[in-house]
Amino acid sequence: MPPELTPDQVMRAVAALEAAWVSDDDALATLVQSGHGERSLAELVAQYGASRLQTVVLVATGIAHLDGAEQQEALTQWREGPVSHVTSVAMTMMSGWARAAGEDVQSTGDLARHALQAILSFTAIGDDPQGVRSLFAYLREDAVAHSS
């Protein structure tokens, strides 16, 4: 399992999602450039996308709002169902796509757009521009809140 993303990596992944959403290839090209020893942007996008997808699915199903044994029972039942399997396949595909994308701007942008679409598919936001912008603001605030 990959290490948890740092707040800086989360901010970079969110910036990539936003740049891909507005089709800003120049911003994506800048974000794709990574320093020596840094993980590729595509890997960050895939890991962040998978993490957010899992979180939003648990919220959408109500499991995130349960406590203790009730939450564990709901998780056990969810893991046996088709949504869990489809979500797992999607997360695995994002990871494989990230490895194949490498430093390619177009492939990384495509991955970011699809990761965002997967997340949005479990929300009421849909393709509402104001809702998507609010989501990006929330994701950035969440990254900053976890940096202390």
> What is the beta-strand fraction?
under 5%
Poorly predicted runs? none
- Give the integer mean of the pLDDT values: 90
Largest sheet: none
Q: What is the gyration radius calculated from CA atoms?
A: 16 Å
The secondary-structure class comes to mainly alpha
Instruction: Please provide the ordered H/E string of secondary-structure elements.
Output: HHHHHHH
Basic shape: globular
DSSP strand count = 0
Helix content: over 70%
Q: Count of helical segments?
A: 7
Determine the N-to-C terminus distance. Answer: 24 Å
What would you say this structure looks like, in words?
This protein is mostly helical. Helix content is 73%, strand content 0%. 29% of the residues are buried.
In short:
The protein contains seven helices and no strands. It has helices at 7-21, 25-32, 41-60, 68-79, 82-101, 105-120, 129-145.
What characteristics describe this protein?
single chain; about 150 residues; mainly alpha; globular
Topology at a glance:
Layout: H1 7-21, H2 25-32, H3 41-60, H4 68-79, H5 82-101, H6 105-120, H7 129-145
Helix pairs in contact: 1-2, 1-3, 1-6, 1-7, 2-6, 3-5, 3-6, 5-6
